[in-house]
């Protein structure tokens, strides 16, 4: 079946440093999304980026579909960025049938 | 105010019992979903519903039964609970007609003893 692998498993930064998170997937999908899961557990969609480069605020995602990889760059990290970042691929023909990676746990120290 | 309400937030059950996890969304979406997150495992798709009809079921066990009494409700009934069912269950919703942004509830953390 489809697999989504994320690296690194965890990352510790000082506030102000940049973070680069990686997502590799076994087969192409119609949509790739990045989510943030707070330490309390709730999930928020950050970006949808099936191909190319997308920016929102301090986040930049680059997806190279033919190489089956995506990255999420967080610039000027803040302590409030701490949490788990999840990559998910959508294999549903309609609707949201997402296959998630296990995530990267980011900890930003003051 | 949360737009997807899941109740209860925490649930403890004994093996063999039955529980219902409640989900209501106030986003006006017609597609609703259940996902499960077990310890040290990725979030796992369980079910999708569109206009109160089952669209996709990736749960092998019939012990898991979604119930949609209203278009903004999708409850999850779990029977004959097992310790392996311990997980956080997330309800989600989205617009229909494509792969639109998915919104998640805060989850119900189920522990089966």
Stretches with pLDDT under 50, minimum 5 residues of chain B: none
Total strand segments of chain A: 11
Low-confidence segments of chain A: none
**Radius of gyration of chain A, in angstroms, nearest whole number:** 13 Å
Largest interface: A-B, 25 and 31 residues
Count of discrete alpha- or pi-helical segments spanning 4 or more residues of chain A = 0
Tell me the name of the CATH class of chain A.
Mainly Beta
Order of helices and strands of chain B: EEEEEEEEEEE
Structural features, described:
The complex is a heterodimer of chains A (110) and B (113). In chain A, 0% of the residues lie in helices and 57% in strands. Chain A is mainly β. Chain A has one domain (4-109): Immunoglobulins (Immunoglobulin-like, Sandwich). In chain A, strands 2, 4, 5, 9, 10 and 11 form a six-stranded mixed beta sheet that branches. A five-stranded antiparallel beta sheet of chain A has the order 1-3-8-7-6, with no helix packed on it. The mean pLDDT of chain A is 92. Chain B is mostly beta strands. In chain B, strands 2, 4, 5, 6, 9, 10 and 11 form a seven-stranded mixed beta sheet that branches. In chain B, strands 1-3-8-7 form a four-stranded antiparallel beta sheet, with no helix packed on it. In chain B, strand 4 and strand 5 (44-50) form a beta hairpin. The A-B interface holds A 4, 30-31, 33, 40-45, 48, 86, 88, 90, 92, 94-103 and B 31, 33, 35, 40-45, 48, 50, 55-56, 58, 88, 90, 92, 94, 96-107, 109.
